[in-house]
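fwd from M.: "can u put these together and see what the complex looks like"

so here's what she sent:
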Amino acid sequence: MPSPPLTDRRLVVVLGKGGVGKTTVAAALALGLADRGHRTLLIEVAAETRTAAVFGTAPPVDAPVEARPGLFALSVDAERAMQEYLSIQLKVRPLVEMMSRSRAFHQVTQAAPGLAELVTLGKIWDLATAVRDGRPVWDRLVVDAPATGHGLALLQAAASMRDLAGSGPISDQADAIERVVRHPAATGVVVVAIPEELAVTEATEAVTLMRGHGLPVACAVANAVRTSPFGPGDADALRQVRADPAAGSAERAAAGAALATVDGAAHDAREVRALGDGCALPVAVLPVVADLAPGSGGIEQLSAALMTDPALGGAGAA
Amino acid sequence: MAMLRGRRVVVVAGAGGVGKTTVSAALALGLAAAGARVAVVTIDPARRLATALGIPGLGDEPHRVDPSVVEAAGMRMTGTLDALQLDPRATFDRLIAREAPDDAARDRIVRNRIYRHLSGAAGAQEFMAVERLHELVDSGAYDVVVLDTPPARNALDFLDAPERMTRFVEGRGLRLLLGPRAGAGRTGWRALQAGGHMVMSVVERLTGAQLLTDISEFLQSFDGMYQGFSDRAAAVHDLLASDSTRFVVVTGPRPEPASEAVALWRRLADERYPLGAVVVNRVHREPGVTGTPDGLAGLLRRAGAPDPEGLASRAAAALEGARARAAADAHEVGTLSRALSGPPLAVVPSLAEDPVEVAGLAQVTRALGGGARDPGGSAGAAPPPDQARRQTT
């Protein structure tokens, strides 16, 4: 069964090693979806508020903050989500307060491995299924997941909890969430890497793990890929100048700088291929953007590059 | 590098993506070259690093690096270097085996569903990194252990990990609530029973009874092991806080990791951990020439370039770009240096590729002030300095 394009899936989870630019890629994707007219929510987890820096808005802690027309950001934190969950489940205010204050209750939540992740995932699910006036509140949700290991734990939270809690409302809810998270028509996981060995290896291993768990991996994104403005015939002439003792020092340095650009681009192209081969996924390629400060146009440039990349079309998706 | 000589533990910390693993390996190489018996514990699956070091792969057990591989890269090797990769589950299983009073108790824990989830959970990595460090130091087989710390949102989570784990195993409040099920029917629990019972019945309604039974069994099976965990947490803390240890904070010349490095450094200082140095990794070097390459088009024409004018202007732009990056990095290093006001700052130049061969690693080692040249050995081919690194936010 062919999977729909990533841009047609309601829930997109962006995953990758620390420092590869997950936040940037998630923001670029959310911006692109909003530009296409989808009411989009960009979700950060574990009390991160880094998208505020990308869009130059206030940290979206209490409620979604509109960062651009149709694009909202929200930071989801497990503690707060747990309180919300309790008030919905228990419906009795004093009981909720007693539970929230109970040290023992906090110990239970710590003792049940993955409960924080489950509550976070549950909150995301709530947002994804929220309906107002007969219509979904959000057309698209993009999750900026924590670094690989913790991100995988988040995606696996529902399955873990269903295994641990054999019965009861939590188990039923975990089951319902897991069905959505695993459904390739509803959910797509995007794995981000930079063209460096460690990031590519980690992405490859994460994709293998996710496939093993039946999670719908849609595509990979290679971020900050260097390109070269020099053609194949240029390098020979540049090398001659660099090695020419009669040439001026500035001329040799310029030739050297140009050749380093050629080498850098070749290196990155090799790593992009390794990423695609290792993950068996289409790879969207994003360029190096010098300035990502709000108002610099950097995030808009990345968004345009990402949204027009054929890798987002869903071909070859798991 | 000199400040690390004679230490038993070097902890390498920093934000994700700054090259902690490379710096850890380079420091370990330098210490081994200087004569120490060194173990480096990496967290990431750095396969090419393993290949470069001439070992079949990084696993839970230490692999000895063949000194001839290092000497071929032009560095004299007078000590030994072992490399291993953290396997949280294997480390946890060994810890349980050591602390459990008997085999039956060990099996009870290892089979428990809560334990199986816990030992594989992402958070277990921080605790197990510290535990593995303790094992290696205790083994007496090494003069110094270099620990590459796990990526975490808070890069110092691992410092609190042993204590968090001890508190969890102790599970005092939880035992009271679970009552007789968790074998806590001793003094004091009656007073809490009424409120506790209510909380637990709510939890049970949500999770089903099975989960609570599993947690009870899990805590019960740790009975008698609490003291062992607690002693170990205290020992690890003492070791990390002692003069035998040095913390090295790695960062890159960009605002985000740099501000994380400053926060990390200050927290270490506040909590009186022994500080070593801050390493700024992948700093672009100034091309080192002034002036504009006005004669380049002519030279390129003579070299047979198809479009010498166009090529010359693109090459001139590449040189300008390299200068701009070097200036931006120098500015960032200056900002960092002022923000930290004091600690030694080591700058590692950006290489064309992340060092995945010993020659490249040896370059990083030398940038950090280690590794005497081997007069007999031939210098390995070193990657050229990089001209364009990438942004990562």
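replying to her w this: Chain A touches chain B through 88 residues (CB under 8 Å).
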